[in-house]
Amino acid sequence: MNQETQALHVGYEKNDFGTMSVPIYQTTAYDFETAEKAANLFALKELGPIYTRLNNPTTDIFETRMASVENGEAALANASGHSAILFSIINLASAGDNIIVSNKVYGGTTSLTTHTLKRFGITCKNFDSSNPEDLEDLIDENSKVILFESLSNPQIAIPNVEKIVQIAQKYNIVTICDNTVATPILFQPLNHGIDVAVHSTSKYINGQGTAIGGALIQRKDLNDKLIGNKRYPEFNEPDESYHGLIYAELPFPIYILRARLSLMRDFGAAPSPFNSWLNIQGLETLHVRMREHSRNTYKVAKFLKSHPKVKSVSYPGLEDDPQYHLVEKYFKDNMSSGLMNFEVEDFEYAKSILNSTKIFAVATNIGDSKSIITHPASTTHSQVPMDELKEAGVNPGSIRLSVGLENADDLIEDLKSALG
Questions:
Q1: 3-281 has which fold?
Q2: How far apart are CA 178 and CA 412, in angstroms?
Q3: Percent above pLDDT 70 for the chain
Q4: For 307, which DSSP code?
Q5: CA atoms within 13 A on the CB side of 367
Q6: pLDDT tens digits, one per residue of 185-195
């Protein structure tokens, strides 16, 4: 079954009423009917809904479809993309461990991995995901994660996936790829040997800017990497918080299972059933929208490339872009999403452009059906020190566009007027 069909049908057997739309199970709790069934559910002898913080029928369908379109084994939905990033890391790393993170990631991810997790005893090392020659030297016995983005926000950089995976396999360390910008329609990380895919489903998957959400998906056979691996005792030793349960002994996808039973149980970053339903609606049309986002962005990028007041344009889908060969190598039909970056002379001029657009909204979301313009240095990456910003490729005159589904000619006219 192809992705387009999976996104519309997988995981839902029509209920007693034959509803074409997935029902919203807007409930917190469930009637177990008997004490025996309740005990079996909590002991994992039976599978089924326990409490909506842990699982919910509407969310289950969304998770099943996310796993299917990513060609993964299992998924866990989260309340936000940021909580999904957090869960993906702390499911593997504890106090005293370190993680290795690309220097080209979303500013909030940088803040989380470099500063916040440090307060909990998890330290961060950075590597260049485009040229990961330094990666191997950073790995030690306490390294638990290699984290990067398939299309970085806002630099629009594509990693050297093959080299990163090769090094990770050599040291038996788990790789995590944030696939928010590319989406499974353009790039499937798990098909390239990456272990875990992470999404902010608030973006392209939702597509309308109506619901915050996140998801993490484990690849098929990830159990084989975790079981018996000395880097990851959490999966191989008794979990004292769950009556001595040893995840490695269970016939389930244990990375997602532990994230659900331990992290979701204790941190509670669960999506509401209604938000899961909204994200299901978005997922059903994702394949159509990603084609249109990519086509529109290509046209806008071509216009900006020719404008005399634009210093540079970063959009890998352009044939003369330095990363175009990576788009040809990794991305479906040479499409590279709706996110692009361009640079003008300085901060003041960048600000004047943002203040002059009529169709492009000044907002910090991406992946919406409506076009968005952002100045990363003063918003999404404002918490990152200036020297780190420059190292990450974010300059004072950098402007990020999330190109929507409007007519491309109208978008070009809006930018032409704003550029002056």
A1: Aspartate Aminotransferase; domain 2 (3.40.640)
A2: 30
A3: 97
A4: -
A5: 28
A6: 999 999 999 99
